[in-house]
Amino acid sequence: MAERTHDITLVVNGTVRRAAVPGRRLLSDCLRHDLGLTGTHVGCEHGVCGCCTVLLDGEPVRSCLTFAVTVDGREITTVEGLADGERMSPVQRAFAECHGLQCGFCTPGFLCTVTALLRDNPVPTDEEVLEGISGNLCRCTGYQNIVKAVHRAAEIMAEES
Amino acid sequence: MKPPPFDYHAPRSVAEALDVLAAEGERAKVLAGGQSLIPLLNMRLAAPGHLVDINRLTGLAGVEVEPDGVRIGALARHAEVERSEPAAAAQPLLRQALGLVAHPVVRNRGTVVGSLVHADPAAELPAVLTLLGGSVRLARRGGPGTPAAGSSTAQDVAAGGSFVVRDVAAGEFFTGPLESAAGPGELAVSAFFPALPPRSGTAFREVARRHGDYALAGVAALVVLDDDLRITSAAVACVSAGPVPLLVDVTGECGHRPPASAGWAGAARAVQDRAEPEDDIHATAGYRRHLIGVLAERALRDAAREALNG
Ligand SMILES: Cc1cc2nc3c(=O)[nH]c(=O)nc-3n(C[C@H](O)[C@H](O)[C@H](O)COP(=O)(O)OP(=O)(O)OC[C@H]3O[C@@H](n4cnc5c(N)ncnc54)[C@H](O)[C@@H]3O)c2cc1C
Ligand code: FES
Ligand code: FES
């Protein structure tokens, strides 16, 4: 028997998107496979690595620990939606400037997490940055440059506001 | 690493959710924040035939601060409870413990009540509920029910259907590792955390391999003083110290004395003696027992300091 599907509507990066998904479709797989948005990465699929982090109505969540049907009708922002047209967002520019990435696998999750962090706390302390990114793993950078990038992004945002 | 197939249900009311749970019994699982259940599904450690998604039951999202405590609805996320100033004022141990539950992003989805029902012996909130003597409210189909006045379930009865509600005390709620008193057909609608009594303080201390990981060992403490600022009651609840949260009353060991001269070391030894930690790849049972003693003394001293300052 074919698996039953559910028709869902998501507003992804400001665009209304529809998909027919089985109940068990993870939001991460829905974004990547049904909607073709492969910027959201999938590492562990049990909530540990953080690279699948997207914004759900503005709040960072693990897309690998969320079913697509559960968030029917809600707004999702992925890494593809952070830039303003061709211009990278302050957080993206700061990561590039400070070498906050090497292979880039973890980067989409960091960018989404940090975007929400700085919106809620525009001038975080070192400790607040560490707490904020503690749920995102990076195998390459050793984190120092990521922490620098978060502070640099805060500066850029302050300069541009 | 993909979940097995299941029939998905998205009830719009508690009554509808209870109908599905009653009809499917053991085949059905409730989906709240999914931060424990979805990893189990992804790893194929669980394969329920039916999933009852309660994320649309927004009536269960409340965090109500009552004079005698905080009632947390089944859809209140860890992050919402952590942020709530009235909840932190009524019972500071909630915020102290929630800051140690996973990472901020996981706390945006995970629910307090889901964490209680999940009953992981390494989780913080079951220990908090046990220490404070709180309870979990369970609802199921049946009738004629007598839901507590003013609860969201009472309003739901008016919306059609009768159901039975029971409050289970923390001491009876946690029955084993990943086992709680919530049976097939039952939905946990809320949990109640009693308020902090006057002249008392709380603390939560734990050691984890990495910030946000489940703790190797953890201790929550509650110390109550009398008018002369002597200890009248002291107790701890430990995490990763056995199959269920371990509650130890150490009032006797501390002595009816001011905190500065209390018998903290004896109290810590008493807690250590009662602990039944296990070996796993993260730590030996012996190391866990050592940690429990150290953390018990720290948590008790910190709770006493809070009681003096408060
Ligand atoms: C990376 C990571 C780290 C974590 N670290 C910690 C940690 O350090 N400490 C900690 O305590 N937790 C930790 N967690 C778990 C987290 O706190 C979960 O949110 C919580 O354990 C379960 O809540 P939930 O709402 O996500 O429940 P779900 O995952 O939706 O459900 C869990 C179980 O409870 C049942 N259930 C849930 N709600 C109800 C209800 N209302 N009625 C009946 N049954 C119900 C479900 O059927 C399921 O069996 C971690 C999770 C992750 C992914
Ligand atoms: S893929 Fe989601 S947290 Fe690792
Ligand atoms: S840049 Fe390679 S994992 Fe972070």
If you had to describe this structure to a student in words, what would you say it looks like?
The complex is a heterodimer of chains A (161) and B (310). In chain A, 34% of the residues lie in helices and 17% in strands. Chain A has helices at residues 27-34, 90-97, 107-120, 126-132, 144-160; strands at residues 5-12, 15-22, 53-56, 59-62, 75-77. Chain A has a five-stranded mixed sheet, with helices on both faces. The longest helix of chain A is centred in the C-terminal third of the chain and has 17 residues, at 144-160. The mean pLDDT of chain A is 97. Chain B has three domains: 7-53, Uridine Diphospho-n-acetylenolpyruvylglucosamine Reductase, domain 2; 58-194, Uridine Diphospho-n-acetylenolpyruvylglucosamine Reductase, domain 3 (2-Layer Sandwich); 201-309, CO dehydrogenase flavoprotein, C-terminal domain (Enolase-like, domain 1), CATH 3.30.390.50. Chain B has 13 helices and 14 strands. In chain B, the strands form four sheets. A five-stranded antiparallel sheet of chain B has the order 4-5-10-6-7, sandwiched between helices. Chain B has a four-stranded antiparallel sheet with strand order 11-12-13-14, with helices on both faces. In chain B, strands 1-3-2 form a three-stranded parallel sheet, covered by helices on one side. Chain A binds chain B through residues 3-4, 6, 22-24, 26, 29, 45-47, 50, 53, 56, 59-62, 64-67, 69-70, 113, 130-132, 134-135, and chain B through 1-8, 10, 31, 34-35, 38-39, 41-43, 51, 53, 55, 79, 102-106, 108-109, 210-212. One FE2/S2 (inorganic) cluster (FES) binds next to loops of chain A.
